[in-house]
Specification:
The complex is a heterodimer of chains A (383) and B (508). With 383 residues, chain A is an all-alpha fold. Helices cover 73% and strands 0% of the residues of chain A. The chains are: A mainly alpha (383), B alpha/beta (508). Chains A and B meet through helix 8 and helix 9 of A and helix 5, helix 10, helix 11, strand 20 and helix 14 of B. Bound molecules: adenosine-5'-triphosphate and magnesium ion (MG).
Chain lengths: 383, 508
């Protein structure tokens, strides 16, 4: 009886915390969809048809038939994969009290190195590698280089106090321009017909297989879900996660508790960069089989929106990634049905982000009382 | 007092938090021009009642009237409108703003489309003069001592024409001198018709300044009395519901070997000013060394240097023979230190962590709280349950966030954690700040128990009573130096007071 009551209240507590956490993001999405609908109406479109197209394009429908529906779902999963990795990257940094705006650059670094290992390693070695060595190696090198790239910013923060927002932006410029230089130069695909800044195709042995024949969704998607679970576990169940969160929430208390704050900041940044690097690696090894300039434009920035929308919780990140992926993927069908510009989708995404970020507006519109603690500005005496 | 009209009345107020009935059918009234003190155990519901009056929470039941009229208070804006001002236990000031900017925040004076700092500064100066509240309108708030920051908060309420002022534990962080100043200001205010609700745990203060005293326990009002009709013992009894022994039972005890040895350390604060000069002393196992002194004489920096939060610029610190000068906190902790930090919310707690996590804040990384890098929720939970009951932390469960606890209960979480660790040395900085008399009694007895087990205790406290009650030897700190070290039994309050005020009479 007693234990039943206890487990009941435990379930209730968990449900309560889930609904508390997701209420504002949910209402933000709803509001954005309504305002988006009004705008579609104003520009002369049919909002219901537009949203129908969006949903059909991303999740399929009986009307489309089985094959096309499966393809729609597969494509949404494909889109969501880099979003999940990059979203986790930003979220992990958030948990550690750091704002990683540099996912875009770290992702590019990961992609470049994975591509390099993917196409050049067999040439260097002079023999072919088996897939169980070549593929993991390509992924791991890309991931680690993303980590190193971000780790530099972490070290600057820890040892000089340089702000990570500014430094990650700087590192983005360096990463993106260097990538452009490499892809137009030494790493450029030398095949006679090519005029694009892109690497050669990676070897078969560095490619991730598709999960189903005929669909593009690849094992990288499954890996993304596993990594999301792993990050949840790491943050909440391990001593390292405890250290990252403590430094993020109260660095003074972390120092008092004997946590090496500097080391933790560097480590958090490195882990964050590794996740962003993975986003790039997986796109190269699982989808494009090469790195092409501009393929990733905006993933690293969308990731910030995803981390905010997902409240930095891995499950929230996965769901927010699905949403963003569905919108990107469904946009084509929306356009096909309504002749509206795809840019509308970007606008609705921007609206969602606006409302999530401006939490207070949503709370005001829907009269939700903030449950959070009031902001303490100078510390007086607790009570 | 009974002639003056009632300005504020709360009738049948009930407020339920998850698992806690914080206010249970509370009746409370405030008369014009009086100081009405509110007493009660930690977690009795005092801050909650005040937050309800101020509009930070909404009562589940009951009504509030202001000047006889039914008041609808949904937010602090409503209560400010009604002439209610509150100085929180947490100040709500922005450190990088000037005093004037902080005061006008939310009620900005505008002239020709820009902020009218001059007229605000003038009004602040007027208020300062009128009530003897000395503040410089142009000073940056972050650079002011707490006592002055508190004054800024009071000026802020008066600037908004508050006629009812709520002061939630204002004296907890003040030096005795600052507290005296505050009482003078309070009397000035009441003489001008302002009415004050004053929350404190210090019975002496209540008896000295209050016109009426209301005692709360477990969410209910127990009684309202006049100071002339009561005394400390009776008040303590009403608060806790049992007899409280206001003196500490301490037997003589043979001190053992030297545990903490401090040799000529010098420490600089964050402004790079030398605040501790060439300090030496030692604490032996089984001994309590009390450091007395007016706050701000280097005690904070000294304890930070001993616990690894700050590096001394010279000198040597050894614990049990091991040189730990300038070592990081983890190394010092592992050498056998427990540390109750001065600022509980800054260093002592992660407010959004559960009590269970906070109770393992320094030990999370080893057995039984973790195994191979994985946290062990069972061990965390068990530890928390044990400490919650031993130290009487008032909470519905170990999962509650520390930030949801009442101020005193937050302190108990830290004290419980630190005093339960198996250590050689305890550095306790203001261990009982903000605690009720019952909890102080318990924590004092725990400190003495540790000493009797052979632990060395360094007690830093602004409360002379606490220093006198617990210490075997007493060191007096003045302007960054130890000006005297004496046997506790061979000195008097008066003598200590003189040393604390800077009379350099070296003895012992
Ligand atoms: N926001 C909240 N959520 C949940 N419980 C709360 C909240 N605020 C207060 N409580 C609970 O209500 C009770 C009363 O708390 P309150 O802060 O009013 O005590 P207090 O009398 O001011 O104590 P102290 O002297 O320690 O400051 C406590 O048990 C506390 O845990
Ligand atoms: Mg309180």
């Amino acid at each position: 009886m007693q234990s039943e009551k206890q487990s009941n209240s435990l379930i209730k507590r968990i449900l309560q915390s889930i609904s508390d956490a997701s209420l504002v993001p949910f209402l933000a999405i709803l509001t954005a969809v309504i305002i988006g609908g009004i705008i579609i109406k104003i520009v002369g479109g049919d909002p219901f048809l537009a949203y129908k197209g969006l949903i059909e394009g991303s999740f399929g429908s009986p009307e489309l038939g089985l094959e096309k529906s499966l393809k729609a779902i597969s494509e949404t999963a494909v889109w969501s994969t880099p979003y999940i990795f990059a979203g986790l990257a930003v979220a992990l940094a958030f948990k550690g009290g750091l704002f990683n705006i540099g996912a875009e650059g770290q992702l590019a670094v990961g992609a470049v190195f994975s591509a390099l290992i993917g196409y050049a390693l067999p040439e260097w070695l002079g023999f072919d590698l088996p897939v169980y060595i070549h593929l993991p190696l390509a992924i791991i090198v890309g991931m680690l280089m993303g980590g190193v790239w971000a780790g530099i910013v972490g070290a600057l923060k820890a040892y000089t106090g340089g702000h990570e927002v500014i430094n990650t932006i700087m590192m983005n410029y360096i990463a993106l321009n260097t990538t452009s230089f490499l892809l137009n130069g030494v790493m450029k695909d030398r095949s006679p017909t090519n005029v694009i800044a892109r690497t050669p195709l990676i070897a078969e042995s560095a490619r991730m297989p598709a999960i189903f024949d005929g669909l593009r969704v690849h094992w990288g998607f499954v890996l993304a879900l596993l990594v999301a679970f792993f990050i949840w576990w790491l943050l909440n169940k391990t001593t390292l996660g405890f250290e990252i969160r403590t430094v993020g929430l109260n660095p003074d208390a972390a120092q008092y508790a004997g946590i090496n704050v500097k080391r933790t900041i560097i480590l958090t940044m490195m882990l964050s960069g590794m996740l962003a690097g993975l986003a790039g690696s997986i796109e190269v090894t699982g989808l494009n089989y090469r790195h092409e300039l501009g393929f990733s434009i905006g993933y690293g920035y969308d990731a910030i929106a995803i981390a905010l929308l997902g409240k930095s919780h891995p499950l929230g990140i996965v769901l927010a990634s699905f949403l963003f992926a569905a919108m990107r993927n469904g946009a084509t069908r929306m356009q096909f049905l309504t002749q509206l510009p795809v840019d509308l989708i970007s606008m609705i995404q921007a609206l969602i982000l606006l409302f999530v970020a401006a939490d207070a507006i949503i709370r005001y519109i829907y009269r939700i009382k903030s449950k959070g603690e009031r902001v303490v500005l100078t510390r007086g005496w607790g009570g | 007092m009974s002639e003056s009209p009632i300005v504020l009345e709360a009738k049948g107020i009930t407020k339920q938090f998850p698992g806690v009935l914080a206010n249970d059918n509370v009746n409370f009234d405030l008369r014009k021009g009086e100081i009405h003190a509110l007493l009660g155990e930690n977690g009795a519901g005092k801050s909650t009642l005040m937050n309800l009056l101020y509009g930070l929470h909404k009562p589940d039941k009951g009504e509030i009237t202001v000047n006889g009229k039914n008041a609808i208070i949904h937010s602090p804006n409503d209560s400010i409108e009604l002439g209610i001002g509150m100085v929180h236990q947490h100040f709500m000031l922005i450190p990088v703003f000037s005093v004037a900017e902080n005061v006008m925040l939310g009620d900005e004076a505008v002239k020709n489309g820009s902020l009218d700092r001059n007229s605000v500064a003038k009004k602040i100066t007027d208020i300062s003069k009128q009530y003897g509240l000395d503040v410089d309108p142009n000073a940056l708030v972050g650079t002011l001592p707490v006592g002055i920051q508190q004054r800024v908060e009071i000026v802020k309420t008066l600037y908004r024409n508050a006629e009812i002022v709520i002061l939630d534990e204002p004296t907890a962080v003040l030096t005795p001198q600052e507290a005296e100043d505050l009482f003078r200001i309070m009397r000035d205010l009441t003489a001008r018709g302002v009415s004050i609700i004053f929350i404190t745990h210090k019975l002496k203060e209540v008896l000295a300044v209050a016109d009426r005293i209301t005692v709360m326990r477990a969410g209910r009002v127990i009684n309202t009395v006049k100071p002339s009709e009561t005394d400390s013992a009776q008040l303590a009894n009403m608060m806790v519901g049992r007899q409280v022994i206001l003196t500490v039972d301490k037997q003589d005890h043979e001190a053992a070997d030297e545990i903490l040895k401090v040799e000529g350390i010098t420490v600089r604060d964050q402004r790079d000013l030398e605040t501790v000069h060439n300090v030496s002393f030692s604490v032996r196992g089984g001994e309590v060394l009390g450091i007395a002194g007016v706050q701000g004489n280097g005690q904070t920096e000294l304890s930070e240097a001993l616990t690894g939060l700050r590096s001394p610029t010279s000198g040597k610190v050894t614990i049990d023979g091991k040189d730990l000068t300038g070592k990081p906190p983890r190394i010092i902790t592992e050498a056998g230190l427990a540390h109750i930090p001065e600022d509980r919310q800054r260093h002592g707690l992660v407010l959004s962590y559960s009590i269970a996590d906070n109770m393992a804040l320094c030990d999370y990384y080893h057995a039984p709280f973790s195994s191979r890098g994985v946290l062990q929720p069972k061990a965390l939970d068990e530890n928390a349950r044990k400490l919650i009951s031993a130290f009487d932390v008032r909470t519905p469960s170990a999962f509650v966030n520390a930030g949801k606890l009442s101020g005193g209960n937050q302190q108990k979480v830290i004290v419980a954690r630190e005093l339960s660790r198996n250590v050689k040395l305890v550095i306790a900085n203001q261990p009982t700040r903000g605690l009720d008399v019952g909890s102080i009694e318990y924590i004092h007895s725990e400190i003495i128990k540790m000493r009797d087990r052979g632990v060395a205790v360094l007690l830093i406290s602004a409360e002379l009573d606490e220093i006198m009650a617990l210490s075997d030897r007493i060191a007096v700190m003045y302007r960054g130096q130890i000006v005297a070290i004496v046997e506790a039994k061979k000195t008097t309050r008066e003598q200590l007071g003189l040393w604390m005020a800077g009379a350099h009479v070296q003895t012992a």
